[in-house]
Design a protein that fits this description.
The complex is a heterodimer of chains A (232) and B (426).
Chain A lengths: L9 E14 L2 E14 L3 E6 L5 H8 L7 E6 L2 E2 L5 H11 E5 L10 H12 L3 H14 L15 H13 L5 E5 L7 H16 L3 E5 L3 H4 L4 E6 L2 E5 L1
Parallel strand pairs in A: 3-8, 3-9, 6-7, 7-8
Antiparallel strand pairs in A: 1-2, 1-4, 4-5, 9-10
Helix pairs in contact in A: 3-4, 3-5, 4-5, 5-6
Chain B lengths: L1 H22 L1 H39 L3 E6 L3 H6 L6 E3 L4 H10 L3 E16 L2 E10 L2 H6 L3 E4 L4 H6 L3 E5 H6 L10 E4 L2 E9 L17 E5 H8 L2 E6 L2 E6 L4 E6 L2 H18 L5 E4 L1 H44 L1 H10 L3 H38 L7 H27 L3 H5 L3
Parallel strand pairs in B: 2-11, 4-9, 6-8
Antiparallel strand pairs in B: 1-12, 1-13, 3-4, 3-7, 3-12, 5-8, 6-9, 7-8, 10-11
Bound molecules: adenosine-5'-triphosphate and magnesium ion.
Chain lengths: 232, 426
């Protein structure tokens, strides 16, 4: 299916992408010339040894970081030269993040955490509360709205994080080791959710160390020393 | 419509800010404490300072800031030599001085000569020690005392040298001379006067800087006073007799314009100096005193203001300190918000609102306590205090200002948090 799609359907495209950190007289090339494109509706697993540049690539794709050199096209728009505000705007409207360590705001309730993107989108409080409730229900936490993250298990926290990532109805979900802090059974639950979301049309890019988890993705990309070693 | 949405958004931000502050009630309270004390001291100090200066100024204003008073006093040299034997000491302002003053300065609207004698007054069976004030009709223009009954002195009284007297209400009551007694005879010393009018006594006390109106006064034409009682007064005290020859006890001058008061005073001073080798007079210029009181007030305000300012500064630094700690503590939260799509500006707004809410609440609480303090001071010490709108509005806006000034830096620090670093797993 992927192969039959036209190249223009690429929702994400890196062109000759470099991320270079100067370290004194040396330099670290976290991305050392990456050319890749991900199509709309695809589900990618990114693998590779520690330090191979996976997180660096995710940060660039997530508009959190800028390339030292090269181009990044997001939905056809070159975002490599955009300023901080425009990148924030892209994150807010088109991207959803899922992190290894969940990254919920501890002092906010589950509902408030899920509402967060809607708050920055300027939704009115009632509508966003309604949407948050819907999303919480869809990840099976409809009865936990007033709980604080610390009162939840790891799996539950990650589900809240997924609900929050979905609040702005993003095209792309970026997940950096989403199962890294979870036991196998819980990890499987989470990956099932991601598969379901992919079926509904979300483009998902996921970093993982576990081959069993990577199996669930439609494509696997393996990185080594800042370049793409192979694609499976 | 758009403004409305914006406003409710702002209100929501404030509400979220308050919610966040309420998560750490004790810390928020301790943080606001600095501003509470600062604002409290500003309000208290302003009202105490204002109260003190108002009291002084009220007294001076009552006298009339357009007026200048010259009083006859014994010069220091005379005071020292007259104590042993009987002799006449001659001092003070003369009729000639008065004429010169009246004739020289075009800036003088009214000049009133005053001659004072203490005499026994008698009406029917009642006697009373009177202060007899020989003066001109201009006196009544100057003091503007309401007439209770009859009339005040007139030019024709002077011209005819009529033996007429105007009593103060208080004195009239003491002599049992009510409204109906106008026209009755009052003997002052050896002489008989017809009571032609009664004027109101001056209300209140402590303002006798120049108005000899406090006690029982009888106002009579100046030339009558002079011809009846002369210029020499004998004062008997144990072992010695003292003769004083004073022509006029006092001259009150009203200047046409405030701007001319000081120059007129200077001119009169120079003129008197020429004819009085010894300084046997005393000039008081209420305007100068007013100016002095105002300058004093400014100084007091600056001193009190700096002290209050320092306490506010300390309060502000306290807030900044806690907010910086809060930014460090909430680095991860900031990173999350940024990753989700919050702009730097929005992070700044969030932290700034928290600081301003904190300092404003501190300001309002401080204001409430600060209003009570002067009331307590007044209650327990009797020191007058005045709470003006200024002394409430100023600290209120200062507390908002402190929130902004000392909140900017922590908020900017928060906005500069790099989400990549903040979100790196611990
Ligand atoms: N801010 C930085 N300054 C300097 N070097 C950096 C910086 N961030 C990353 N690097 C380097 O870039 C390389 C790629 O790092 P990255 O975090 O992308 O690896 P990774 O593939 O995500 O590894 P892991 O599997 O351990 O998460 C590493 O050598 C790392 O040391
Ligand atoms: Mg990584």
């Amino acid at each position: 299916m992927i192969n039959t799609q036209a190249a223009e359907d690429a929702i994400i495209k890196l062109e000759d992408a470099y991320k270079i950190y100067p370290m004194g007289s040396e330099e670290v090339r976290a991305l050392n010339g990456v050319d890749v494109s991900f199509k709309k509706g695809s589900f990618w697993a990114i693998m590779g040894h520690s330090g191979s540049g996976k997180s660096t690539m995710m940060n660039v794709l997530g508009c959190l970081d800028r390339l030292t050199k090269g181009h990044y096209f997001l939905e056809g728009e070159d975002v490599s030269g955009l300023n901080d505000d425009s990148l924030s705007e892209f994150r807010l409207r088109h991207l959803g993040f899922i992190f290894q360590s969940f990254n919920l705001i501890p002092q906010l309730t589950v509902q408030r955490n899920i509402e967060l993107p809607l708050y920055y989108l300027g939704w009115d409080p009632e509508q966003s509360a309604e949407r948050a409730k819907e999303l919480a229900k869809s990840v099976g936490l409809g009865n936990r709205l007033d709980h604080r993250p610390t009162q939840l298990s790891g799996g539950q926290m990650q589900r809240v994080a997924i609900a929050r990532a979905l609040a702005n109805d993003p095209l792309i979900l970026l997940a950096d080791e989403p199962t890294g802090n979870l036991d196998t059974a819980t990890g499987v639950q989470i990956i099932e959710m991601l598969r379901e979301l992919n079926k509904q049309g979300k483009t998902i890019i996921m970093v993982t160390h576990e081959p069993d988890i990577a199996e669930n993705a439609k494509n696997i990309l393996i990185m080594k020393d800042g370049v793409i070693e192979r694609i499976e | 419509m758009k403004i409305l949405i914006k406003d409710t958004k702002f209100l929501r931000d404030v509400q979220l800010g308050i919610e966040n502050l309420l998560l750490h009630k004790l810390r928020s309270f301790l943080t606001a404490l600095g501003v509470i004390f600062g604002v409290c001291s500003v309000v208290a100090m302003l009202s105490v300072g204002e109260g003190a200066s108002k009291e002084a100024m009220d007294q001076i204003r009552k006298v009339g800031s357009n007026n200048i008073t010259i009083e006859s006093v014994k010069s220091r040299e005379d005071e020292a030599t007259t104590s042993t034997r009987t002799r006449i000491s001659v001092y003070g302002i003369t009729y000639k001085d008065f004429e010169r003053i009246e004739g020289t300065f075009s800036s003088i609207r009214t000049a009133v000569p005053v001659k004072e004698v203490r005499k026994q007054g008698r009406l029917g069976g009642n006697t009373l020690e009177l202060r007899v004030v020989g003066t001109t009709p201009a006196w009544f223009e100057l003091v503007k005392r309401p007439v209770e009954a009859g009339r005040v002195l007139t030019e024709s009284d002077l011209v005819k040298e009529s033996a007429v007297a105007v009593l103060t209400e208080y004195g009239a009551r003491r002599l049992l001379a009510t409204r109906g007694t106008i026209g009755q005879n009052l003997s002052i010393g050896e002489n008989n006067f017809q009571i032609v009018g009664i004027v109101k006594s001056e209300a209140g006390s402590g303002t006798d800087i120049q108005l000899p109106d406090l006690n029982v006064d009888a106002y009579i034409p100046l030339n009558v006073a002079r011809s009846y009682y002369g210029d020499t007064v004998m004062k008997r005290s144990t072992g010695s007799e003292e003769m004083n020859r004073v022509e006029l006890n006092k001259v009150i001058v009203q200047v046409d314009d405030l701007a001319n008061v000081e120059s007129t005073a200077k001119g009169m001073e120079a003129m008197l100096k020429k004819f009085h080798p010894k300084v046997d007079y005393e000039m008081s210029v209420p305007l100068a005193m007013l100016r002095q009181a105002e300058a004093q007030k400014r100084t007091t305000n600056i001193v009190l203001g700096s002290i209050a300012g320092i306490s506010l500064l300390v309060g502000g630094i306290g807030i900044m300190n806690i907010m910086l700690a809060s930014v460090t503590e909430r680095t991860r939260e900031i990173g999350i918000r940024r990753a989700i799509g919050a702009k730097k500006k929005q992070i700044i707004t969030q932290f700034l609102i928290e600081t301003v809410v904190l300092s404003t609440i501190g300001g309002v609480v401080g204001l409430c306590i600060g209003i009570i303090i002067p009331l307590l001071i007044e209650l327990f010490t009797g020191m007058p205090t005045v709470i003006t709108a200024f002394s409430i509005i100023l600290p209120f806006f200062i507390s908002i200002g402190i929130g902004i000034i000392f909140g900017i830096y922590p908020a900017a620090r928060a906005a500069e948090v790099d989400p990549i670093i903040a979100l790196r797993h611990e």
